[in-house]
Amino acid sequence: MRIRHIATRFALLLGIAAVLPLLAYGVISIFSLQRGTRQSVVNGNQNVALRAAEEIRRYVLTNTELLKALAADLQNTGLETWQQDRILKNYVLQFREFREITLFDEGGTTIASSRVGTPRITLPKDALLSIDGVSMSAIKVDEDLLPTSTFAIHLTRLSQPSGWLAGEISLEEMWRMVDQIRIGDHGYALVVAPGGELIAHGDPDKKALVAQTRNMSGHPLVAAARGHNEPAPVAQEYVDDTGRRELGVAARIPQLGWTVIVAQPTVEAYATATILQQQLVVAITVALIAMITVGYLFGRTFINPILALKAGTHDIAAGQLDARVAIRRSDELGELGEAFNTMADRLAKLQEEVKRQERQAMFGRVAAGLVHDLSHPIQNIGNSTRLLLRDDVDADSREMFRRTIERELATLKRFMEDLRHVVKPKPIERFAMDVNGSVAEMVESMRSEGERNGITIDAQYAEGPLVIEGDRFALGRVYRNLITNAIQATSPGGRVTIATARVGNQVEISVVDTGSGIPADRLSAIFDDFVTTKRRGLGLGLAISKRIVEQLDGTIAVASEVGRGTAFTLRFPARDDRASQAAAS
Questions:
Q1: pTM of the predicted protein model
Q2: Which end of the chain is more exposed for a tag (fewer CB within 10 A), N or C?
Q3: Structural domains in the chain (count)
């Protein structure tokens, strides 16, 4: 009995002697892993913020250099006014970021401008800062809900002041640049002006805050960045306005006074580290139980694997992610070694993922192009103009091309009016109109667009007459939005079908595509402002279309299935009285 008691005590002594060091090792390893992994995540996000700040800085400085180059071409050259005017117009056509460029004399009187008619911009009296001799005004949101700023440079002639050169620059490209910055699945970036105004936001659900000129002075990182005099970024965990805990990094752009913030939910940022810590805890717990049970049998053989694991853990914590342990055993220590190597492999993958995200933030390109509502009318005008100049075109064709140009110009004018009244739409004038005729006109104008994209556009018209009270220009805008969206969502070889029908006392127009479809969780919000399923654009096309339809007492509905296509259906009250049908014809 005594021998058994001594053996039990000896076994417990050996077990405790083996357990205590391993327990200490486990605690140290977990905390070392936690600190090392979290610091690695913070460093990665800091690099992303620095890269983003540098890209934005280069983007703004490039525009100032372009304006300075133009100023060098204009001053001390003795050009005539008409020559200066031609140079400004050519410059705006060549560099699309410039919305308008105007040359003023020293007294502020306009000399030449890229704009046809009265210039829209004036000399900025509220210059926010000066960049290498170029004054920059505060960021404003224009009528298209896009960010713009006015840059101005003082011209001299023979060392004497001779006037000002001012240019209104669209910063839409900067928005796209911010949209491309992604950290994980839910991380995003935002840019804040010196006064706290929100300039750009990468979260699609919060883009409306930019149009609302939300002031971000109360944001924890904005205040921390302003009080930080060092050039390095500021990292901080905080709780956002939705109650979600975020890991944020703020990097300042000293020349502009802007602050770039990269934020990511802490749950996502530390997800891999948390899983690895849980796995390590489980593995250590299993090993502890095994060691207490058979400690006196394998006491000496335990120390070498433990030391190997400890050395490997310290190597990992020191940043040597290629460190691995070789424990060739079939027991719990072997499993612990495999778990450690799995942890090291995952840490290495995490580091590669962070590097990949940094490269994407540094080298990501933003797709540039015009708003899709404008591309088709401009293309039609260009094609008709080129055909109109040909000598072999007969009189009837010339008349058709002339009507096409007038129609598309009217469409562009009405489009600009629509944008001017996005927040408070202007009432639409109603006239009796034939639905089949208006739809056929739009289908024919869009066929070339479909052919360029390899899409077949079909039209199916119900027997007429189908008469409603509507606005041909406004409904043309709706048709063009729906057909353009259908073409963009459909792969080459697909089909877009536009059909009209009489359903009871209503006239129905449907646009059906065989494209990629819209996820069910996005359908309920696609008609809201600033909601889009595409990678570019502000998400106003369908919102404006819905307003137009409702102003005409109509309804618009959507049905979609991912991978099979989308169907939009418009319905309007039918007019069957003879007066309306006569007016429509």
A1: 0.44
A2: N
A3: 2
